[in-house]
User: What shape does this take?
Amino acid sequence: MEIFSADQIEAIHLASLAVLRDTGMNFMLPEAVDILTREGARVDDDGIRVHFDPEMVMEKIRTVPGEFTLHARDPANSVRMGRDNIVFSCVASTPNVSDLDRGRLTGNLEDFRNLLRLTQSLNTAQVVGGYPVEPVDTDVRLRHLICVSEMAKLTSKPLSGYSLGRERIEDAIEIVRIARGIDHETLLREPSIHSIVNANSPLVYDKPMLLGAMILAEHNQAVVYTPFTLSGAMAPITIAGALVQQNAEALAGLVFSQCVNPGAPAIYGSFTSNVDMKTGSPAFGTPEYAKATIASGQLARKYGVPLRASNATASNAPDAQAAYESQMSLWACVMGGVNYVKHGLGWLEGGLCTNYEKFIIDAEMVQMMIAFLEPAVVDEDALAVAAIDGVGPASHYFQSPHTMARYETAFYTPMLSDWRNFETWEDAGSVDATRRANGIWKQLLAEYEPPPMDSAIEEELDAFVARRTAEGGAPPL
Amino acid sequence: MEIFSADQIEAIHLASLAVLRDTGMNFMLPEAVDILTREGARVDDDGIRVHFDPEMVMEKIRTVPGEFTLHARDPANSVRMGRDNIVFSCVASTPNVSDLDRGRLTGNLEDFRNLLRLTQSLNTAQVVGGYPVEPVDTDVRLRHLICVSEMAKLTSKPLSGYSLGRERIEDAIEIVRIARGIDHETLLREPSIHSIVNANSPLVYDKPMLLGAMILAEHNQAVVYTPFTLSGAMAPITIAGALVQQNAEALAGLVFSQCVNPGAPAIYGSFTSNVDMKTGSPAFGTPEYAKATIASGQLARKYGVPLRASNATASNAPDAQAAYESQMSLWACVMGGVNYVKHGLGWLEGGLCTNYEKFIIDAEMVQMMIAFLEPAVVDEDALAVAAIDGVGPASHYFQSPHTMARYETAFYTPMLSDWRNFETWEDAGSVDATRRANGIWKQLLAEYEPPPMDSAIEEELDAFVARRTAEGGAPPL
Assistant: This one.
């Protein structure tokens, strides 16, 4: 879907190029500034403010792959990123976790593990988009070793690591390589891990993230450059202005990736939403969010690069608001041609909490979207003119041969939605969707089986983690 | 949005013309059969099965107005139906009503009145789509007199009546004419009431509805021809086949309206959804419903006629399921270019219940859609290049002059959504969206003021109702 005219998109594009040329952007890693200036960017006397000429921007982003495979340790779970593909990930990086039984808790390793088990179990979660909750009860120096190795063992889907300095991302890359059972050369050919690199909006890329982005690009691994452009706070209060800034920051990230390693997989990240101007609170799944996401699709298609956005809501409970704000986000993603829907399952509270029931509600909503995107067949058989004539007026289709031949697979089958009539539903206890979701995630956890892993690979993985743990892990940031 | 190719839509179109020609459709009113055969249709020996040649169908529907005004007694509330317009109505025709405090009750006059008060108060309910709940505690012979006069007094929005035989629709037309304070000639020029005429699918139009449709067309009032094509039950189990049947039945209705009175306003009704094949229960807001609604938009645009669909869900509670199924319905309506979204506010249980909290949840969702559909401005001021340069990196926009000049009106302001942070929300009692909705409808009812009505008009209205009541109203069906 297009929400802006071609002229309007061109105006946003040109304005963002003007921002990159005239205002420029701060790159807080000297090594990154060196790479960019070597490739034609200009830097101010402060050594951090980098300016990009429009020609350089457009030339550099030409080598961003329009589509690539993100490999999983189970090849059946590898996904295509870009063009006409759409994939959904579990929620990532929340500091809290909640469910109906326990209420809200600080993120911890046991919930981290359980949320990975749900991610593995649900075919609507196709990518591990990050830590599904931050395990705050682990040593910050060892957390990445614990977390990425747990992700590699508990799931067999494409993984992610955090671009927080050199050691963490190098360790994550190595764990993913070991888990896939491939050598270093194969890893350099096959993107096997991805990482989000946020701009510290407005117009700053911080040092630890740039370092991670650089190392990932050197290894031909995928980086999602996502400006944090909340309109009215970290970006202009107009949607057009926020998009100009988002586009400038995202393009700067894509340019950086290609300066490091031309052809390295990189994704345009869209996260433009707005704040509540009365309180300053971020809002998600708003009309503004939907417009910005669909417009981002127009921009990403103009550049021929993959696009990431999110399934987001500001609701504090897994309630009707969470559902309708997430639906606004999901429809905007689908209508915008988003390739990678991050936080696809489980996000609540504007990203400050992962909620188990919301995880299941999202799984149902994503499953409905996938069914919606499956083209309906239109052929002589489906048009059913003979069946209509056979049934005729004042009858029904329940016993029609046309129905009997198809009834088992004809329609979408829900996991969470309850379509029984009121009386039957009431007799069964009047259980609403959120409480049904509570039962579903418990059943999924009870039925979870870890994906098989070769014992030699598991030993190598454990040995690597043990060695790096003995070495002290990664320094605190 | 288009979900089928032009070739596929043409195939559905041609198949439905073949159904109308070969299978035909039962018209249970001899007068209707006479009108149709006089205009070129053929009837079988049974006197009810009518066959239409494709040429007749295409010629007759040419006179359906692509757009028309549906007049309200307050001219500011008149709406445009068709083309690029979209309007939403309150829910209609449910036998039950429910809220969080009282649970589920049989429809009654007091709730009927309260739901009309909400319809009047909310600018997201632009049309009174029917009785917002069936007042079962009123005499069935007098119900239409009570209900339509209450609709005319408690609201000042475009009204509707039921096509259930001659007396009911003639009384409804007369009440609407009196309420608008216009003479009969003006009424014949200005569509001032609308009515749903359902096909008794498959392939039947019943006698009382045809009689109502005929009288409305004679008076140049609007009729919405809506086949009840639940895929797998009253229509083929394939979406393409259900659309073929829907299209055949809707076209037959449109043809009938134009045979009665060329140029009479008529609307193509889409209601194709599917049943749960395990239980036979109707399902709404499903992927199939979304596909069928968007495809209906392609068909209606092909014919240049206004389109009606619904904001529907099968959920039994105003919960997350109700919200996400309704969002699927609403997005399909918007993406399908639907002109008249019936049941826009308050529908629950597949149409068997009106729920007060759902009414408010829907009002919020509809309001978000309306804000989404407002085009974002893209001009030099909105692009904000100077503002971005003025703020620069590592800063924020809260105090920027560009922000200060716009912050009061920049963003969508919700009625129901709570964007406060978790701690503030928790301190305020952790009230979820459905319980907040409970407070909102009570406040709206407390603040309701009836729209002013000229005392002479009110007297004329009361006198008419008193006379028709004394005459015994309308016979039971």
Q: What stands out?
A: The longest strand of chain B covers residues 193-199. The longest helix of chain B spans residues 239-260.
